[in-house]
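User: Before I run my own analysis I want an independent prediction to cross-check against. Here's the chain; please return only the structure tokens and, at the end, one sentence I can use as a sanity check.
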Amino acid sequence: MLVDLLTYAKVIPAMNQIELHPYNAQQRMVEYCKYENIAVTAYSPLGSPGTREDDEPVLIEDPRVLAVAKKHGKSAAQILIRWAMQRGTVAIPKSVNPENIKNNFNVFDFKLSEEEMQRLVASAKLSTPSKLSAVEKEIERIAGLPENSVMIV
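Assistant: Structure tokens:
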């Protein structure tokens, strides 16, 4: 849809808000948006524990996320927010708990290593079946890329 929109839009979108977290990293969409100078906002950066199927894993309980959190002395939520930020995306976690909201801001005093960034995405590949979104498939089709390829911008 975004690719189609850009073919006729008189005003280019400034932001694309998509579900984005290690279990749904949407790498091709993020790269495409960067290529088109469209910022990306990650909604549900902590996963979607309330809307998942019973057999799907819970991202903030993933052992690999928890291991990185322990290493940095941070919560799983803080690790996932930092992961989104280091990718150059905007994270908007949802919480009604004042303590969690406060803690969600404490992500500027540490940095994840490249290995940790990759490990978080790798955990998603091990924990969830590979699902190429319809948008990513459309980008590949319109851009003439081979199926399941990685767009490098």
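Sanity check: The chain is about 45% helix and 10% strand.
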